[in-house]
Design brief:
Length: 320
Amino acid sequence: MFTPNTTQSPTSNTGYQRVFKPGKLTLGVFFPIEAFNDDMPTMQNQVALAKFAECAGFASLAFRDVPLRDPNFGDSGQVFDVWPYLGYIAGQTKEIALLTAAVILPLRHPIHTAKAAASVDQLSHGRLLLGVASGDRPVEFPAFGVDFERRGQAFREKLELLKLYWSQYFPQVDISFGYMADADVIPKPVASHVPLLVTGHSQQDLSWIAEHADAWMSYPRSIEAQEQVVKRWRAAVETVFPGQYKPFTQSYFIDLVDEPNEAATPIHLGQRLGRNALLMHLRASKRIGVDHLIFNLKYGKRPAEEVLQELAEFVLPEFV
C-alpha cells in the first residue's frame, strides 16, 4: 500500500478510466448538487443525490476548494473542506470518480496536499482525479500570507513537488517554504502519481500544462469558441508528446426547465434550456472533442432530484 507503483500510469486508475473513454463524452455533477440563490447552499440530501448519480451512470462527482467565504464571489462551493468531504463521500460511494475542481495549490503546503490526495486515492481504490488551480479569489491570499501576484510561480513549484513526493522515497527538498531530509511523505498513490488536471490556465502557458498535466479542465463557451480552444489544446499536447492523447474537460452550469423543447438562453457560465436543446449541446460538445462535462446546478429553478432524474432518464443513456 505504501510502495509507489512507478510503472503504473495514472491513466490506468479506475477513476480516470470511468471519466475518460476514447471517443465518448462522459458527464459529471458538481457539489453542491442543488440550486441556491446566494453564496451559501443548504447541503441537504447530498449523500442520497451522490448515490443516485452513481447508480444513474454519471462518471464523476466534483468537489470545490473554497477556503474562505466571500459573499461577493457568489459561490462558497460545498462549504465543507475539500479533503474531509472527499473522504466522507468516498465512504458513501463505490465506483464513481471523485474529482477536485480545483484544489488551490498556492494556498496549501505541498506535503499536506500530497498526503491528503494520496490518502483519498488509496482509500477509494484509485478513484481520485486531482484538479488543481492557482486560485482566483484575491480575498483569500492575504489571509494565508501568500502573494496573489506570485501565485503562478507557486503553482508550478508545488505541482512539481507533488509528483516528487508521490514518486520518490525520502526525497531531499530545500525550498523557500520548507526543508525536508531523512523523512518521507506517505502513503504513496495507487500509480506513479494521482491523475492531475490543471484548471484554466492557472497563470501558465498551454505548452506547460500539456507537459505537466494528465488532462486540462476549462470553462464553458459557445460551441464555436470551445472548438477552437480544444484544437489549441490538442496542438499543444501533440507538440510536447507526439501521438499522445490528453483529455479535455469543462464545467457547464444548467437551468434545466420542465418544457423539453425550450430553446437555450444564456445564464452565467451556462444555459437555461430544455432537455432536447441540452442533448443538442452535448452532441455538439462531443463532436468538437470535449471528453468530460460536469454539470453545475447552482442557477437552476427545479429541485435537484427532479433534474437528476430527468438527466438519468433522457440524457445519460446516450453518453454512458
